[in-house]
Amino acid sequence: MDVPCVRVDRxxxxxxxxxxxxxxxxxxxxxxxxxxxxxxxxxxxxxAVSTDLEVVDRAAPTRETQTRPxxxxxxxxxxxxLGEAALLDExxxxxxxxxxxxxxxxxxxxxxxxxxxxxxxxxxxxxDWEVLAGEDTEVVHREYGxxxxxxxxxxxxxxxxxxxxHRVAEQVGKRRHSVDDERGNGPQGESEHVFDMFAGxxxxxxxxxxxxxxxxxxxxxxxxxxxxxxxxxxxxxxDRITAIHDDVREVAPAYxxxxxxxxxxxxxxxxxxxxxxxTIASDDCVIHYYDIQHxxxxxxxxxxxxxxAADPEYAVCVETQRxxxxxxxxxxxxxxxxxxxxx
Length: 343
What we know:
It is built from ten helices and 17 strands. The protein is an alpha/beta fold. It has three domains: 58 residues, Alpha-Beta Plaits, CATH 3.30.70.2580; 68 residues, GMP Synthetase, Chain A, domain 3; 182 residues, Rossmann fold, CATH 3.40.50.150. The strands form four sheets. The protein has a seven-stranded mixed beta sheet with strand order 13-12-11-14-15-17-16. A four-stranded antiparallel beta sheet has the order 2-3-1-4. The radius of gyration is 21 Å and the shape is globular. It holds the Pfam family Trm5_N. Its EC number is 2.1.1.228. InterPro entries: MeTrfase_TRM5/TYW2, SAM-dependent_MTases_sf, TRM5-TYW2-like_MTfase, TRM5/TYW2-like_N, Trm5a/b_N. Keywords: Cytoplasm, Methyltransferase, S-adenosyl-L-methionine, Transferase, tRNA processing. This is tRNA (Guanine37-N1)-methyltransferase.
């Protein structure tokens, strides 16, 4: 059976394997294979892999010592993994329970099986779940060395953005030093100030804090903020994260001119909050602005909105335009890394 695999040169194989393992993206039920100088690493979700990596469909041998759900069912079920939970999207109740029973009976390290019971809804973007196996909807997810507890029925969380979050996290701390060097001052040892306007349970700010940044995370979902505080403790960065339950538009005046970096991951309506982002921005600030737009012009609307909000206080430079993933037919989830600098 063909499965999605990351193809990488053997020399870079171990580094890539570790990165995929840290993101919980390796399909453990299949063997990693080598052919013609390339390593083929089976993965659980092609959409969650960085666009910098090559993904191919390829026949992969199964691990002989492991019983898979497909071995029990006689067909390959579709599900997403999050921590020790399997997430289904099945309309047929009988088929959903059949798959859940097979997952539990298999050798996979999955103790909970949940089936989507509603669309994403409301201001906090949560959905209902049916618990088919396990006790509840709380899971612990590991991502690039960090650990996140969350309740899927109470908070929004997308494991498919793991690679994107890691991409942004790798930039934290580098900009401040490079800017200091340009000014002839050298690194000053001051922590970068990062503000996440829609922080959720902390998948951006927790890894930022592990890199030494001082972070503020705001969210209107009180449960998400409770999990953010718990996750800060889990990862030993509680002293570098301020978690605030509020509408960020109410919080922004208290942090005027504070942020060196701002994350705006609310792609359906981030433009409504750009005035607050400009308030929070320091004299030299990078905004990671997430948007969903038609494929004919995925970046233009976001860039125009940012320029309009920042003018005339800031010069605007779009440093990166990136397609994060396909969101719907002809619609793309994109990110613009935009630098605001006071003239």
